[in-house]
Design a protein that fits this description.
Length: about 425
């Protein structure tokens, strides 16, 4: 009789399935039709292809799989699968019955803000968008600039910055354009189901990567983020973050308090936070692994495979980390960027990827593709990920390779001479 653990895995990428397979677990994979790969088809013990974001669709398939195969844990390590996995875990009696409640308020930014305020943790001014008039009222109360964001999408999609009262007609038009629709770039698995207004949070931005073990939170890494106030695209990440010890302790302490207040007890988390003028303030958080190659950066710098922990812990197949690991190297990711126009040539990617200090190098464009003005993560053209002796060296190498190692020629968009002089096309 087999003693292998059985996991019901909701969504995810090949690397998630790969880690469960390496543990010898039987994997029942419920995957979205748009996300199935050849590797998943070959590797999963059972593959069910349905839109798992629809509860009435996924529930009967999950119940049937449990009845036939038995299930020791329901897991998802990807954003759209978090809520259905939590809901199924509660339904099957595999959690304390509150996992869906916790997951839902982690994904819903308005619920998160309300819960944190009730717990006495620092939050910016916030409110739900209801009509055009509420924008004026919020600006008067919270000041300018302020930020509007969909309550439950990801990767910077739909974020809007309101600069002042004269900007609110444009902001309202954009809200009306996006609200009620699906995300139209990257993953289309998210619905824009309302907007949140928040006062602007100043200060440098970081993310904190943690693993929780039965309510004990272990910060694995603090990630330094490269952002630009002119748009909402993340331009890069680096670990370990270059921080004074006191600032690192303030950030990690704030995140540990946040996770406890939110009710997170187990598994990976990725929390975006700013070290503002009034102290650390959480921007948003996710009860999953960080994207954008952050797990690769963490493993390169710290030797901790967070995907493996995310797979093994819910099955009881790994011991908890005793404490925060020590960094043994530096690692960085930088986005490949070019000015708007039409791609005419792409070269150098294979040479960069072949370097021993490069962990990954890729571009998503080819000749003939359109490069749009940089607005969010979906407008980036690719990325390079490197490992080096320390963070400074990793950042320097990564920036050099994205500038000159990878070549993307772009024929610029024609624009008036005055605008062209004021806004030169990036090299």
């Amino acid at each position: 009789m087999s003693t292998a653990k059985t996991v019901l895995l909701i969504g995810g990428v090949d690397a998630h399935l790969e880690r469960f397979a390496a543990l010898g677990a039987k994997v029942i994979l419920i995957q979205h039709p748009d996300k199935v790969t050849d590797f998943q088809t070959r590797t999963a013990d059972v593959l069910v292809v349905v839109d798992y974001t629809e509860w009435d669709t996924v529930r009967p398939f999950a119940e049937a799989a449990r009845a036939v195969y038995g299930v020791d844990a329901v897991v998802s390590l990807t954003e759209p699968g978090l809520n259905p996995a939590a809901r199924l875990s509660d339904l099957f009696g595999l959690s304390d019955g509150h996992r869906y409640e916790v997951s839902r308020r982690m994904r819903d930014k308005w619920l998160m803000r309300r819960h944190l305020a009730e717990a006495g943790l620092p939050v910016p001014h916030a409110g739900l968008v209801s009509d055009r008039a509420c924008l004026d009222a919020f600006g008067e109360r919270a000041g300018y600039p302020f930020i509007l964001k969909p309550v439950s999408t990801t990767a910077g999609f739909g974020l809007i910055r309101a600069e002042g009262p004269a900007d609110l007609d444009r902001v309202w038009a954009r809200v009306q354009e996006l609200n009620g629709g699906r995300t139209d770039r990257g993953s289309t698995m998210f619905t824009v189901d309302g907007f949140l207004m928040e006062s602007y949070i100043d200060g440098p931005e970081f993310s904190v990567e943690a693993l929780s073990f039965a309510g004990r939170h272990v910060v694995v890494a603090v990630t330094e983020k490269l952002v630009d106030e002119a748009h909402f695209a993340e331009l890069g990440h680096a670990v370990p973050a270059r921080l004074a010890d006191a600032d690192r302790e303030r950030l990690t302490g704030a995140v540990e308090a946040f996770l406890t207040a939110m009710g997170v007890t187990d598994g990976p988390s990725h929390t975006e936070i700013r070290l503002s003028g009034r102290g650390p303030v959480v921007i948003e958080s996710h009860n999953r692994l960080g994207g954008d190659h952050i797990v690769e950066l963490v493993e390169a710098a710290y030797g901790i495979d967070m995907i493996a922990y995310g797979a093994a812990w819910p099955l009881g197949l790994v011991e908890p980390l005793a404490g925060a690991p020590a960094a043994r190297a530096g690692a960085a990711m930088r986005a490949v960027l070019r000015g708007p126009g039409t791609v005419t040539a792409v070269s150098g990617v294979e040479d960069v990827a072949a370097r021993p200090d490069v962990l990954a190098a890729q571009v998503s464009v080819k000749p003939g593709d359109t490069v749009r003005p940089l607005r969010d993560n979906w407008d980036r053209l690719g990325s390079v990920v490197v490992r080096a002796a320390d963070t400074d060296s990793a950042v320097e190498l990564c920036e050099q390779l994205t500038r000159s190692g990878i070549r993307i020629d772009v024929e610029p968009v024609p624009q008036p001479a005055a605008q062209a002089a004021a806004e030169p096309v990036a090299a």
